[in-house]
Structures are given as structure tokens and as C-alpha cells.
# Entry
Amino acid sequence: MLRLEAGVNEDGRRLDRFLKKYLPGAPLAFVYRTLRKDVRVNGLRAPQETLLKEGDVIEIFLTEDQLAEFAGRPRTLHKAKRQFGIVYEDEKVLFVNKPFGLLTHGDEHEKKNTLANQVAGYLMEQGVWRPEPGNTFSPAPANRLDRNTTGLVAFGKILPALRDLTAMMRGKADAGEAVEAGEAVEAPIEKYYLTIVRGRLEAPLTLTGRIVRDRQRNVSRVLPVGIIEEDGFAGQAQRAEMEARPLRQGNGYTLVEAKLITGRTHQIRAQLAAAGYPLVGDQKYGDARANADTERAFGLTTQLLHAYRLAIRAGAGSLDYLTGKEFVCEPPERFQLISEELGCSMKMK
# Structure
């Protein structure tokens, strides 16, 4: 018999999800049979949907052989040299500056050197997290940036903070129906990006529409007004809205601040390109002739896009204390040098 006490990272977790995490090697049928017969919470049988609370005592009546076969062994953390910068940290959250070329999560090509693994390694070195059996939580990001997008990524260091941070990040994007109905919806977190576009953007733009995504080709398309779906693109079109504000123009280029209202895959790149202002260096949505010029001049083969500011308007739950805070990180040096060479330097208006 194994006796465990629920900690802060189990608070609010369903009992069945806890057991799946604790017995990762067990077949699902075994997990649910164990739930029905061999699990007690505070001395009583509990249904699988029971929400655990910090301090609850969980008893699992399995043999030592069964636990040895199915329970989690110490996870092997693929350590990677730390590349990210720390923008803000407290006991609940960590805001980092992701560098160019680093994946937020692993994919089929790269599983070791990722931002998530680097952050986990950092927190393990700090002694605030351990990949041990029984630890059913791993620190994770509440937002994600593409490999070649730099800037702010927010991590939850404990489960309640990650839940609240994720809810805050998704707040406005998940309120599409309310917005379309004309209701006022305040974004818990406002997300701002910096980019350089081809063309002179003279006045702020509000871009609204619908985007469909072709997952096989990993490309998004902005649909014309009145069109809600298009053949050849998987899934239904999703509402997409963003604001673009020109900061500085020069030599046919504009430094732009983009504020996301919704968060769709490649949204900034696709919507600005559709509006006639493609991102410099963007091989997927950009202007081929302009891209050839910037590649010759700077060796630039990908878009310049930097998540530079997160403004928290309404902290949720355990993160209420973050209300009113803003987190900012400057773009990489290469971004700044290219902006100066193109005549739209980082000296913002």
C-alpha cells in the first residue's frame, strides 16, 4: 500500500488524472479498475471525477511488484545549455525571453534542446522542482512562440499558477462569440509584438476577419469578407483580430507594433501580408523580391517577429497580485541592427 499527501500541484486535479500521471506505465483499464477498488481519499472511496485538495491523503492499495511495474521512475531530464533570459520570476511564475531558433516545445525533429527543457533544468538547479516519482506536475509555458519568433514566454512554476496563467492568456481569444455579439470583453493579458514590414504603414490598422489553417502545409490563410470556409484547408475558419500601429517608417519599410486580440497560428504574419504589409524576410507569407533584397543585404532568411510586451490587466485567482504589471524585453541585437539599416530604427515614437 502506498500513502501519499496531495500537495499544491495536486490541488484541483481530478483523481483519475492524478492516478494516470502517477502510474504512467499502467494500461487505462488497470488504472480505472484500481480507482474502483484500490484507491481511498481520506480513508474513503472516491469517484474518479473527485477534485483533490491540498492536504488530502491518497492511499493506493497495490502490491510492491505492481508499483514497481507501473509507477513513474525518475524522469530523465534532457539537460540543455541555458539560452533564455529571465525577465521576471517569483515563487509562482517565470517570464523568460526566448531566443531565435529555439523551440518552445519539442517536435518530431527536436526533443532535447527546447525552451521547456531549459526552464525545467533551471528550476531543478534552483531546487524548486524535481522530476521524481509522484511529482505529477512539470513546469510548463502558458503561451507558445514559433521557433523563429523571439520574446516573452510565461511559465507556471506550480500547477495553480499555470492554470490561472493559461486562463488569462486565453481569455480574449476564447470570447469570440461575445465580441461578435457586440459585448465588451476585457483581455486579461494584452500581447504586443514588434516586427518590420515592407511598405509604409501611415496610420494604425485594425484587422478583422477569419483565418483557416492548412495543417499539412502548416500555412494559414485570411479569407475574403463573406467567405467562411475554403476547399483544401482543414477545419473551420476562426475569427481573427489584431491591431497594427506604425512606430517608424523609412526607405519603404515600417517598424510596427502588433497587438493580438485573438491568437491564431501565424496570425500576425498572415493578416499583415493580406493587408499589403508582409513581414520582412517571411518566406511563407512575404514578398519574394523584398525577401531577396534583405537576404542579400543581411543574410535574413526568416521573419523578424518579437513578442516584446505583456500587459496584465486582470490577474486571475492565485495571480491576482500581477494585475497592473507589465513585462517588457528588448528585441535581439540583430533585429535592432536591421531596423536601423532599413531606416526604421528602434527609436520609437
Observations:
- Residues 189-229+236-341 form a domain with the Pseudouridine synthase fold (CATH 3.30.2350.10).
- Residues 172-184 have pLDDT under 50 and may be disordered.
- The chain is about 25% helix and 25% strand.
- The radius of gyration is 23 Å.
